[in-house]
Design brief:
The complex is a heterodimer of chains A (about 170) and B (about 250).
Chain A: H1 6-25, H2 28-45, H3 55-72, E1 78-80, H4 84-87, H5 94-99, H6 102-110, H7 114-125, H8 130-137, H9 141-159, E2 166-169
Antiparallel strand pairs in A: 1-2
Helix pairs in contact in A: 1-2, 1-3, 1-6, 1-7, 2-3, 3-8, 7-9, 8-9
Chain B: H1 3-10, H2 26-34, H3 36-56, H4 65-76, H5 79-104, H6 114-127, E1 133-134, H7 138-147, H8 158-161, E2 165-173, E3 176-183, E4 197-203, E5 216-220, E6 223-229, E7 233-239, H9 243-247
Antiparallel strand pairs in B: 1-2, 2-3, 3-4, 4-7, 5-6, 6-7
Helix pairs in contact in B: 1-2, 1-3, 2-3
The chains are: A mainly alpha (about 170), B alpha+beta (about 250).
């Protein structure tokens, strides 16, 4: 059975895919590149996908892989360690969340450690279940939850105007 | 489960999503109904999560991105996919010509000279193109071109030396590698565009007749081109602009 038409796939998913990309990169140019690269890979390899209902998650997985590959040669990010008090932080005040604009939210997410950024982006952007997010990010569901919890806690600190304390580069974090 | 453990679980709950049906949250949600303090915290969590999700889901997408994705696919599709029908027809014509040649003697073909190159290269960037290296460092750009056996020891006029580069690509012209260097003039860019001034550099030996050392201007489609050569290379500078605009890059 033929797969979905390329133009239809682009029309359906380029916006959510771009939003995921900019949540990871914070740069419009890099996000456009990642989205373009992902659709190029879809054009060349998408036919190998047997279950056509998985097109969207295939695109997100591919974009995330490309993002990680593009970062592989760079210095490992220092990972933040949250202390016990930070873990008890209250949620972001709803009034404060409403006042933000979308790009301020992206800016704040860009300050979250890279390893936690993708799970947090998917937490806010999409409706996938945790198992689906785990499949997209290609990590166990427990790791997704742990990274998401830490990333959300960092985000709360950032919204509160505090920087997460950082460990030495490459230090353990999970 | 105590209320602290319930809170830890509920921190990952997203209202209005698959989490509503996720059994992993059931017990903690039940507890939020019976524990007033936890209930208030959970209500606030849901409200702020909803607000933030709404913000992230309305991140503006650059206009023209969709068109850029669609046009790049056309450029990057392998030649055999795009033209396989035409290639079959071409093969049939070649076979026919070989037959004629055998019957009536050698045929003479029109050489594909510089004007054709000038037209094809300019039209390629007007249609849309893909930079295979992006960055602002001219030295790294040259290194990338050199690594791909494309012209890299070119000489730029001062006007271009002071213009920011945004990336480059390596193209082919009849067996010769062509360096495409993309610059940004500072004018507002078309939606989805990354650059608006393009320089093509090819080896001087790629053509029997090369442009003169002093730039010659030629209109190609909606672009203006400036064409010149030095001892080692032939240069083709293109932009959607007039002669005066290009002239400032040639000084």
């Amino acid at each position: 059975m033929p797969g979905p038409d390329f133009e239809a796939v682009v029309a359906s998913y380029y916006e959510p895919l771009y939003r995921f990309a900019i949540s990871l990169t914070r740069s419009e140019a890099d996000a456009c590149d990642l989205a373009q690269q992902t659709f190029y890979m879809w054009a060349t390899k998408g036919h190998q996908l047997r279950d056509q209902s998985k097109v969207k998650s295939w695109l997100f997985t591919t974009l995330h892989r490309s993002f990680l590959e593009s970062r592989r040669s760079e210095t490992r990010f220092p990972h933040s360690e949250l202390n016990e008090m930070d873990a008890d932080l209250p949620v972001i005040a709803p009034a404060g969340a409403r006042k933000l604009d979308a790009m301020q939210a992206v800016e704040a997410l860009g300050k979250v450690d890279e390893v936690y950024r993708a799970p947090v982006a998917l937490f806010y952007l999409e409706d996938w279940s945790y198992q689906e997010i785990a499949d997209i990010l290609e990590v166990p569901i427990g790791t997704v939850k742990s990274r998401m919890a830490r990333g959300l806690a960092q985000l709360k600190l950032i919204f509160a105007g505090r920087s997460p304390a950082r460990n030495q580069p490459g230090g353990p974090h999970e | 489960m105590n209320s602290r453990e319930a809170m830890e679980i509920l921190k990952l709950f997203r209202p209005g999503t698959a989490d509503e049906q996720d059994a992993a949250f059931d017990e903690a949600r039940q507890m939020a109904k019976s524990d007033a303090e936890l209930g208030r915290w959970f209500e606030q969590h849901c409200e702020s999560t909803r607000a933030l999700r709404q913000k992230f889901q309305t991140i503006p997408v650059p206009p023209g991105l969709k068109e850029q994705i669609l046009s790049e696919r056309k450029i990057r599709r392998p030649v055999f996919q795009r033209y396989w029908g035409a290639m079959l027809a071409a093969a049939a014509i070649v076979a026919l010509l070989l037959g004629i040649q055998q019957e009536f003697g050698p045929l003479h073909f029109q050489p594909t000279g510089y004007p054709t190159y000038q037209k094809r290269m300019t039209e390629a960037v007007l249609r849309g193109y893909y930079m295979d290296w992006r960055g602002q460092d001219p030295d790294r750009l040259r290194a990338h071109l050199k690594a791909r056996n494309a012209p890299a020891n070119y000489t730029l006029p001062d006007g271009l030396k002071s213009t920011p580069v945004v990336g480059c690509a390596v193209l082919k012209w009849q067996g010769s590698n062509v360096s495409l260097i993309c610059f940004k003039s500072g004018r507002p860019l078309e939606p989805g565009a990354q650059s608006d001034v393009w320089l093509f550099v090819v080896d001087r030996n790629a053509f029997g007749e090369a442009p003169a050392a002093a730039p010659e201007f030629k209109r190609v489609n909606k672009a203006t081109t400036a064409n010149w050569s030095d001892a080692g290379h032939i240069y083709l500078l293109a932009a959607v602009a007039d002669n005066d605009f290009l002239q400032k890059y040639l000084q």
